[in-house]
Amino acid sequence: MTEFAIYLHGGAGPRAGRDYSETEQHLSVLAEAARKQALAGRSALDIVESAVNAMEASGLYVAGRGSAPNSAGYVELDASIMNGASREAGAVACLRDVVYPITVARGVMEQTDHVMLAGTGARAFAEQRGFELVPEPGSYYRLPVGVEASETEAPTHGTVGAVALDRHGRLAAATSTGGTFGKLEGRVGDTPLIGPGTWADDQIAVSCTGVGEHIIRSGGALAVALAYRGGASLEDAIQSMLDEVARLGGDAGAIAATADGQLCARWNSEGMKRACVAHDQPLRSATFVS
User: Fold this and answer.
1) CA-to-CA distance for 215 and 235, rounded, in angstroms?
2) Is 175 a catalytic residue?
3) In a structure prediction context, what are the per-residue pLDDT tens digits for the chain, which is 290 residues long?
4) Which one is catalytic: 156, 159, 175, 180?
């Protein structure tokens, strides 16, 4: 068996001067839980789903419980997950009022012949297959850490994600979001798109965060993977994608893990909430410092 490597992110776009100690502590707890799962032999797919589940349910991030209503007044959720060993993938877009969108996305991957379900079809699938639904939508959602009430109509963005290499050498990636605050009804960003938002194969796993429209136009996670597979260093592969996002007028971040145990996070916003741990690296959690 090989060793393990895990990276988690709680989204790019934090604003300097605001206190993100609560999310840093939460990410540390999740990274420690992921470390224990890896040591116990859990699969990379299980590890990334579990970490994203916890972030979705916490309400601390712009995903799951921390999501804001769209322009029509209700919350739409997006998520995707990918198993690098098999290239199987699942996603949901514009999904309403489920507690764990990433688990529904995994359900699409494992229980259907499809990669993505959206809107009313995604909701019907979640209900029919018994995935946990939000009991009282009107009181369930809350403001995530670092976002003020006056900003819920502004294009504030955030995402959560995880990448992992397990002790059997398998890679996986998962990403989830409530989308940009004040988005139009039906808007879909990069997060549920296999390629731009999430990618995993036998060499690399990547999860992106940031302004989805610009990430899509830059190629996102798949652009990172192709550059890495083409011989670029992991750092250069991510930076090249971020440079293209910036050229197009957006900001973004990405985390990645490779089959040989490398971990990397880069961003071109003021910061990115994140934590990582590996067999040969102590647990680290930060928002602004590199």
Assistant:
1) 17
2) no
3) 679 999 999 999 898 889 999 999 999 999 999 999 999 999 999 999 999 999 999 999 999 999 999 999 999 999 999 999 999 999 999 999 999 999 999 999 999 999 999 999 999 999 999 999 999 999 999 999 988 776 666 666 689 999 999 999 999 999 999 999 889 999 999 999 999 999 999 999 999 999 999 999 999 999 999 999 999 999 999 999 999 999 999 999 999 999 999 999 999 999 999 999 999 999 999 999 86
4) 159
What share of residues in the chain are helix, strand, coil (percent, to 5)? 35, 25, 40
Q: Give dist(CA 55, CA 46) in Å, integer.
A: 14
Place of tokens 């145990």: 261
Written as six digits, the tokens of 32 are 């420690």
Q: What is the DSSP string of 135-179?
A: S-HHHH--PPTT--GGGTTTT----EEEEEE-TTS-EEEEEEE--
Would you say domain 5-286 falls under CATH 3.60.20.30?
yes
Q: In the chain, what are the domain boundaries? A: 5-286
